[in-house]
Design a protein that fits this description.
single chain, alpha/beta, 2-enoyl-CoA Hydratase, Chain A, domain 1, eight-stranded mixed sheet, EC 2.1.3.15, ClpP/crotonase-like_dom_sf
Length: 263
Amino acid sequence: MTAYERVRLARSGERANAQAFLGALIDNFHELHGDRLSGDDPAIIGGIGYLGRRPVTVLAQQRGRSLAENERVRFGMPMPSGYRKAIRLMRQAEKFGRPVLTLVDTPGAYPGIEAENGGQASAIAECLATLLGLRVPTLSLVIGEGGSGGALALAAADRLYMLEGSVFSVISPEACAAILFKDRDRAEEAAAALRLQAADLHELGICDGVFGEKGRDFSQLTADIQQTLSAALQELSKGKPADLPGKRYRRYRKMGVEHVVNG
């Protein structure tokens, strides 16, 4: 499968969305709404539940399964209120000592003028900074398309995992082709250059683990994911909470330095 074919697979409406993974991974999930400022954004689902026996706060970017639902959630592209809701729930999780799990599946933050007027850039930046600074363990799982800063705002965790059929990139192949080649039709070429497949990111040391999907039913896949996430939380919970932000800083600083040095 080529890189661009993988992008198309990640975007497919046939893939399980955040609601499906929440139902399979999280017990007794209770959704919480609103950013306490301007409203509630359905493109980000937030709430509390149990991963195994451990209480967690979950934040999930939601794509629809029908045209009507996709219009309601803007095809998974969050507004500023969505990121502010995430910030509120992350701070609540830290207050009560709950780990944070994020499910990433978005082509990017919503680019409309109302989002820009509402402070989209600052909301994304604050969300990213909050996630990096939490004194509780954080896990992120890319289940579909992870696009641009809109995805990164919920992905800069202690551990980042990806499904085999997911992708993660600083920019979409189409936008990259339009900028670099002045031709969106060269998206396939751009996708290959971006190295956005799960296997690429694992090789680069950005992704900590890849869950194979071929030949496995959904229950097998989610059982494997739940076991891996639970083990990661157990490991991360052994240290001092105050040490977590510094470890995250060194993790991502190391990634940046290595990628600059290695070109």
